[in-house]
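Troubleshooting entry. Yesterday's outputs looked truncated, so today I'm pasting the complete records for two proteins to confirm everything comes through intact. If either block looks cut off, that's the bug. Protein one:
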Amino acid sequence: MIQSIDYTVIAVPLILALVAGLVLVLDAFLPHRPGSGRLLGLVTLGGVVAGLGVTAAQAVRGGWWQTFCVPPALPTPPPMPARMTVTLNVFINAPEELVHAGTSCSFVLDRFALIFAGLALTAGLVVVLMSMAELAGGRLPVGEWYFLLLCTLAGAVLLAASRDLIMLVVSLELVSLPVFALTAMRRYDGRASEAALKLFLVSVVSTAIMLFGVSLLYGLTGSVHLSDIATALSGGTPARLGPVPTAAFFNTGAPTGLGPVTAVATVLVLAGFAFKVAAVPFHSWAGDVYEGAPVPVAALLSVISKAAGFAGLILVLTTALAAQAAVWAPVVAVVAALTMTAGNVLALRQRRAVRVLAWSSVAQSGYILAPLAVFARVARGDVAVGASVAYLVFYAAMNLVAFGVVMLVSRARERDLLDDYRGLIFRRPAAAAALAFSLICLAGLPPGLAGLFAKVVVFRAIVDGGLGWLAVVMAVNTVIGLYYYIAWTAKLFTPAAAGEVAGRPRSLPVAAAVGVALAVTLVFSVVPQVVLAAVA
């Protein structure tokens, strides 16, 4: 069997990997002079832009493209003459309607994967711009920073296109492992070391839990491909596999796919991803890690890492474990309600800007999870998935604006207190206006229509799914969130105390990062159909 690889399908992660290697080579051989770090930043920025361009071209091309495929099992061929050989070519790049029935692929480039790739790369563009300002002081190793950042982006792009459990776990670790080092890059900062250690321990535990669940799923079904697992757990036999006796053994006395071991595996996988997205009860690390990490890394955790975690969670639950929705949907509903409540209540008590955004991010995870709870209740499960993805895309743009302005202010005042934003409209009108718009969007109030549309989409999905109690919890939490968002916004327009200083000169890369994120948020507010049509 010859298994071909279409490099145009995996072009984006290849570009990111090659640029990451190029950055390390340049860092090793270029003389370390003032301005050399800027060159590495531009190379990294160019790689991200190139990946974003290829993603846009793939989206325009459309279709369903895949590679790294395993063909269906074939009957044993009759004996052939010794001189005769047979080569089986696998259709790798065919559209969905041309793919052989039973073919299982590890890498699928569909609309879901393209949306998450675009989200990760756009957010990566903003994070790279913020990193240029973070690295300008010369206190951090530039080459290692950009290399790790590109590895994280490559993992995020790969994860959304992964369609087997091994590739999912490896991609998720490729997202997570570089973040430990990025968080601890300030070697002599005690808070950064503490944050990196907490993040490392949490990630190790979550990976162990997830691997336990993944191993159970493999033992039950005999396959790592999500499509084969779904077929086996729904009572069928995958085209590539024979009967799976282990599934019948473990599920003795229960309907196919609904045995106790399957339920345990489902809960373990869900718990592992809950760590990654900071969902209750695995959320306690968020505040300290966000505060101790450099601001660009906190932004990366809040958007790129979270998006990758949700991509994996959605793929596993709605593809491999769709037949087990009766098991995981009630758990997701309860976790979503607790997550949005805990995040909003904890955000009320914070006095530091990054910690407010950290607990706000936890609350937003609850909103993103909520539509998945009605996956099995609505006529079309993809509507629930679309609502979660739409909210995640809206949230990413709004949150990046806030982190960009926080970095601008933190360069002038390292205390990171909310009181530092008092009177910001009089010192930096553009930054204050951008932050105010971002906070209003996150609160879901006009004129921040992006946030309003996001909440309406999620609320409608929950109501259509018949979970009225979850809709009420979401409405109450939206009101709670209004308090700290509006209180922070009010500080921007409150006159500052006498003797207030203007701070350091403005940073052009950070200003550009805020501008990019703000432009995307404005587009989403004016033309939300751009997102809603994409996730439909």
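Protein two, checking that the full record survives here as well:
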Amino acid sequence: MDRIQSVLHGRWVIPVVSGLLILASFAVAQIIEEPFWGDVLMIAAAVVAGTPVVIKAVNSLMIRVIGIDLLVSVAAIGAVLVQNYWEAAAVTFLFAVGHALESATLNRTRSALAELIAVAPDVAVVLRDGEQHEIPAEEVAQGETVLVKNGAKVPVDGVVTGGSGALDEASITGESIPVEKTTGNKVFAGTISTGGFLQVRATGVGADTTLVRIIQRVEEAQEAKAKTQAFMDRFSKWYTPGIMLMAVVFGLITGDIVLALTLLVIGCPGALVISIPVAIVAGIGRGARDGILIKGGEFLETSAKIDVVAVDKTGTLTEGRPYLTDVVALHPKFDEDEVLRMTARAEAGSEHPLARPIIEAAAQRNLPVLGLPQHTEPVPGKGIVATLDGHRLAVGNLPLLQAEGVSDIAAAEQTVQQLAAQGRTPMAVACDGEVIGVIAVADRIRTDAPEMVSRLHSVGVAKVVMLTGDNQSVGEAVAAQVGIDEVHASLLPEDKLRIVGELQAQGHTVAMVGDGVNDAPALATAQIGVAMGAAGTGVAIETADIALMKDDLLKLPQAVGLAKRTVNNMRQNIVIALTTVAALLAGVLFGGVTMAIGMLVHEISVLVVIANAMRLLRHHREDAGMDRSASRPAPAAAQTEATTAQ
């Protein structure tokens, strides 16, 4: 019964019934010489196909909107009044067919959203009092243990507390390769187990999951209007009454009512009205499939104009995990291991951000770092001073050594300069007023950072700018290895904000990529703020103009490229729509184009516009190349060292 009702209320019912009545009219006309019954059937076909159109036109007039439906309604009713029944039936039938095809193809452009909804989990297996219970996914409570078996969907956002396995996270991050999960790893609702068995502690349930936030964002984004679309809407409000006025004028001048009615049909701006929203829906849908969430049409359109990308260094261009690179002994009584051991002991009582890599390096060399120093004194902007077994140890920059009264620092100064020139962060070490060595730490440049810069340039970004809190020599060393065009170093958050403002004042459209904490002011000021690795971060998904779900730098040029292709598609659609209307109007005025032919061509143009937009749903060849390069092992040369931010 439900299937029958679905068919009776389907989008194709009206076109099919109207088409059958038209065929019956032609058949009756051939069998019976009396045209009356043929005309009755033709009028019936026009009424069946035209009634929904007239109702919609009346409803629009009630809210003072003159739209396409009014043009078709007036034309069809006029054709009946002048006894041109075939034209009335043909116009309404073709309009109904076009509407059904438009609805079907538009649903395909929204397929990314449908796919997201389809992966939403229905059931969950929870562990309660040692027993497994299968319950609806929305009934899982915060903190409960959920079991994820091979082939099952993960029903909640959570953290793995036991077991191991692999999850297909394509629905969330766009990652095509299953990701291995073990204890401590995050998992997301809607991802699918491809092997293994996981115990997951639920941290996000029901509507508070990454998947639901993505669905909501895509829904809102596909409804949001771009500036061009808003302009086209305003244009349509004047265009449609203009067509009606033109038809009346031509009808009065020529006395040809059929010509006036034909002009109404020809002038329908259907393809023009749909040209922008269909491209936006398809573009945003393609992005969602690839793990790129774009806030709406306006931001999609703005992203196509990006010509400057500003990036933070630490955690964006680099991995954000400093490690020890060098230990240089500068005193005959101390070798490298002793310099490192003493420095690690001093740092053990410090909150210095570089303490961890020094202590870890000492542990890897099996150097004993036992107990805390007797006293530790941080020296802001310079380093630390610690007391170790009666010895005074200073670890920091050269001004710290000078403040400690260390006189002979020439060797340390030379070593510090050499290491800094290589993009490392050096620290001099002095014991009881004498320099004993220099140690250096660095942060690895991300393997995909150079390729990201190259691809940004290839998609039309003129300049990639680094904004960093590190010193100038460190910033320039990283920039040289990555291919950055411009470096601004030793910056505070307010300095980053100022520089973004200066770039905008120069006429640039700026995208800012950062970690969202100390970069927040600059992210808010830039025309496009980009959050990376936003999966599981509700705030980033909600607030960023573009949220890259996977922590993959190559998603950034992919997003810019998608925006440019979408805007180009919008322009192509506008040209197709306007060219079709102009050609049909010329055809009517100079003869040869009838009302039925005009409606047929008009509906074809609508479908051409939709089909053109649907090309955006295909996986672009450049994006496929990015995906392949992102999944390849990085070459050894890319494992370059850089510094950590201070």
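Both blocks look complete. Sanity check on protein two: Residues 1-8, 628-646 have pLDDT under 50 and may be disordered.
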